[in-house]
Description:
The chain is of the alpha/beta class and 283 residues long. The chain has helices at 3-10, 15-20, 53-58, 60-70, 85-95, 106-111, 114-123, 140-158, 181-188, 200-205, 210-216, 245-249, 252-255, 270-282; strands at 46-48, 74-76, 101-104, 127-130, 163-167, 175-176, 179-180, 194-199, 221-226, 228-229, 235-236, 259-262.
Amino acid sequence: MSIAAIARRQFLGSAIGASALALAGCNEPTQSASDKPTRVFDGILGLQLYTVRELFEKDARATLNALAEIGYKDCETAGLFEHDPKDVRMMMDDLGLVSRSAHIRLPALRDGLEKDLEIAETLGQDKMYLGWIPEEERTLDKYRALADLLNARGEETKAAGIQIGYHNHEFEFIEDNGTTGYDILLDRTDSELVTLELDFFWAHLAKVDPVELFNKAPGRFTSCHIKDSTAEGEMVPVGDGVIDFTSIFEHAQTAGMERFYVEHDNPQDALASLGRSFASLTD
């Protein structure tokens, strides 16, 4: 059975899948009933390649082919595992895929991003998100320094047509002396230079309401990671958990959200997980 067939059978009839059909596009809030509704991600549902990192490392072409067969269009990278960026771009072009953004690491951000910028140019990416910071970097003073560094790199990469961003986990929301690391990043980064990619699973784990964030900083959240959670906090494919994505996506225009990436950090079967999530969001 093909991956596309698996995807179709994985999650038929889910509540979120049915609700997604009624979601109007972000730029069409007054769409008439006679018009065919468009989903919030406007037909370009992406994924974070970290989900399939082991498969991608072993056989990039076969992995990208399987993702395209499921229906994904946009592949956010988190390293290319020694694959030549030109080869990866050629594979994506052959399959009708794009890669509009990448995750980068803190050492590269500090060193100037020279290699990452070259890869981004080759792949056609225009956004780079810092994907994670180690525990020793999570003090309030270091969050302030990080915000300043993001601003500085954002100013430098702007000339190359690339925007710098930050991707959260749950630890940024831990309160310390009446504030949080995320509050500092929101308040101290320049909205013209630094964008935000909100990970819904980690926000949920931190008991943070995405809509409250959108209203607090409208337009700052141009991208998101879509992954679901059980009531107990276990990461699961979209539709198997309790996160109300339909309600969240109703506020996508307020958020400024333009890009949507499905992810699962450690799935038992990466392609089956992605197929199930895709079916949940599109059926």
